[in-house]
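Handout, section B. The chain below has 303 residues.
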Amino acid sequence: MSLRSIEGSGVGETYEELRPLMFSIAYRMVGSVTDAEDIVQGAMLRFHRESQEGTLIESPKAYLSAITTRLAIDHLRSARVRRERYVGSWLPEPLLTDEADEVALHAETADSLSLAFLVLLESLTPVERAVFLLREVFEYDYEEIATIVGKSEENCRQLAVRARRQLEEKKPRFEASGRRRQELAARFFAAASEGDTEGLIGLLAADVVAYADGGGKATAFPRPVFGRDRVARLLLGSRERAERLRVSSFRLAEVNGQPGALFFDPEGRVVLVISVDIADDQVQTVRAVSNPEKLRHLRPATS
């Protein structure tokens, strides 16, 4: 059975209405566009099967939110071992949000989509992550959350407090003005591409850190790079890495709600995505994803 078989039906209308919410939950849970889409499809097919069998589902939203969350929890549990064996730094699959992506429609703030925040969520257990996101981002009440994760309301409250306390100390800060972020990011990428050492150093925070995720499948520096001078040298000396990736052009983009850029090969395929965290008028963190498996969902450049 596929989703095509339910298009145009009442169930299909439910899918169209609730898919953005389901994807929003799944993506924040697993940090992968591809896996989130698979989870949403699995949840919808289960809903369709139950409906066909005559099961009374009073609230499709509650049912699909629960199934989506439970599938995501199961996925995270199975992914733990794979993450431990991952080559180099692990980063989430980047999501373009400057194209009015539907996932952004269900976020109170762009911060909950940022790569920084998704990486931070990795420190939580799958159930803690679910409880925190459902409460803090999607504003479900504790009675609903308890039903979804199979815990008592009191236990869910404790999990939420524990998760909030754990994340609060490391929660990323971002420049308040989106326009200012974009302006500084444009200057940052221009300085890096033009070899403007003075301009680049002036934009980097003293304790800036750069991460790269190649997954052992594409060129990337294996460990995080710390400090203004080292990161500046890394960025200014990255021509060789760009040649190995066959980078021929780039364009600025909004990546996970933060400023960034897409880099293309001569055929127009995305071979590198960079996102930058900006606060206090300086670049605090640079995150680069070149693992081709994490870029497959991105559309190629059009001529």
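Note. The radius of gyration is 20 Å. Compare this with the example in section A.
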